[in-house]
Structure formats: structure tokens, C-alpha cells
Amino acid sequence: MTNSNKFHLSSSAAETYENQTMPAIFAPMAEATLDAISLPGQAKVLDVACGTGAVARAIALRLSGPSRIVGADLNPAMIEIAQRNIPTGKHKFEFVAAPVEEMPFENGEFDVAFCQQGLQFFPDKQAALVEMRRVMCDGAKLFLTCWASIPPFFQIVAEALAHHLDDDCAAKAVEPFIWNDSAHICSLISDAQFECPPPTALALNRIMSASPETMRAGILASPNEPALRKAGDEVIGKIVSEILEGVARFRDGDTLKMPQQAHLFQAIAK
């Protein structure tokens, strides 16, 4: 991510991301990704667009030998939380706030890299991939995920935002999901000097509480937070009610289980 990235989160939004969004979808996605790939016993690992460190922490549990695990993200609020939650043990962790196009690492430092749901946010995707390749050694493996379609949940969120706020907020809600052409993404990865076969599919559920409080916190932990707070609590309440009505078919007791689909790319640095 560069400084022109539209997806900065406030400190409060980053906390909600760690406590709510991460366990709802990004930690399960990290586990699904790791179940679908093979890792060496020990490695020098880079987690690009690491957020609050969900992937890095999951990787640590899968590496048998002492390893170096580094996370980089443009959002300082995310990095602060990642640094607070470094697990103890045999691995060496490091989290840095840095734009993906200019990461503070030497050429060929890493033999494994991850980018979980980050590429679609980068303004210059090709420059980001070229920089990832620069810091990876020849033969290093890149594991990268992007959404494969707009999930039903976010389509419902977008419709509620369009109804009560505006089309710009609605577009922002689904923007992470509309960049999903697997052939195009694969071509970009290949152009950055990777061998990139077609992706495999990952299917999982976003699991979250069906309570209004959880839904309110969730929509505020997004780039739409300023517009929502400007609109006020009454409007936010109406949006929350409309979303909960729209997702009622996914309700299982007090929980929502909503399907999402992702592409998993497994590329090798040439």
C-alpha cells in the first residue's frame, strides 16, 4: 500500500478488525490457506499487507524449526496491534509499517512470502508485485489470495449504504471484491517474474454474531467510518437494521454464517 491508499483505518477500527473481523474471516482464511499448501520446516517468511498479524501468527504454529517471520503493512494502527500480539516461542518476529512498493528489506531476503487479501488494495499492483519479487530469493514461494466474487453479505451492506448514504459509500463497501479476474491477476504475477499457474479455490464462511452491536462495530471498522459517523447514530441504526434484515437467511441461532469465495495463487520466483 502507498500513502495514497484509501483503506487506512483508525486505531479504534483497527482494534475492531483484530477483535471481530480477524476471527470472523481472516484467521479462518489463513488456516484454509495453510491447509492447502506445504511449508518448509523453517523459513524466512514475509507477510505483505499483514494487518494485525493473523497470517504471521498462524504460520508460526506450522513451522517446526526456528524461523524469521516478518510482517509489513502501511497502516501504523494495524502494526501496533501486531507488535502487541507477538507470540512467544522459537521464532523471531518483526512487524514494520511500510508501503509495499518500498519495503525496507534487502534483495532476496525471504524464501516464502504471503499476501492475504492485500493486492486489490494496492494503487500500483505491478510495482507491488515487482517489489515482492525483489525481496524474495530465486525459487521462493509466493502464496497470494484475492476474493473471487462479491459475497452476499457485502452486497447487502452496499445496498443499505446506497439507500441511507450514497453510491460512493456503497462502492467502497464492495471495492475489495470486484477486482477478481483470476487470469488477469495471474498475468500480473507472472509479469513480475514469477511462475504462476491458475489459482485454486478457497471457500469459507464469514462467521459473526447476529447482534446489532456487532454489526454496528463491523461497518464502522471500514473506510466508510468517517461518513457513517458524520451521518450520526440514527442513520447508523437504520443501516444496521436493514443489513440484519437482509442477512436473515444466513442466521443460525445467534450467529451469521455467510459464504465467501477466494482465489489462492501459488507462485514461484524465477
What would you note in describing this structure?
With about 270 residues, this protein is an alpha/beta fold. The protein has helices at about 10-35, 55-60, 75-85, 125-135, 150-165, 165-180, 180-190, 210-220, 225-230, 235-245, and strands spanning about 45-50, 70-75, 90-95, 110-115, 135-145, 195, 200-210, 250, 255-270. Strands 1, 2, 3, 4, 5, 6, 7, 8 and 9 form a 9-stranded mixed beta sheet that branches. The longest helix has 26 residues, at about 10-35. The two termini are about 25 Å apart.
- How many strands in all? 9
Number of helices: 10
Shape type: globular
**Percentage beta strand:** 15-25%
Structural descriptors:
single chain; 270 residues; alpha/beta; 43% helix; disordered N terminus
Write the layout of secondary structure elements.
Layout: H1 11-36, E1 44-48, H2 54-60, E2 68-73, H3 76-84, E3 92-97, E4 110-116, H4 125-134, E5 136-147, H5 152-164, H6 167-178, H7 182-191, E6 194-195, E7 200-209, H8 212-220, H9 225-231, H10 233-246, E8 251-252, E9 255-269
Parallel strand pairs: 1-2, 1-4, 2-3, 4-5
Antiparallel strand pairs: 5-9, 6-9, 7-9, 8-9
Helix pairs in contact: 1-2, 1-8, 5-6, 5-10, 8-10
Short description, anyone?
The protein is 43% helix and 24% strand.
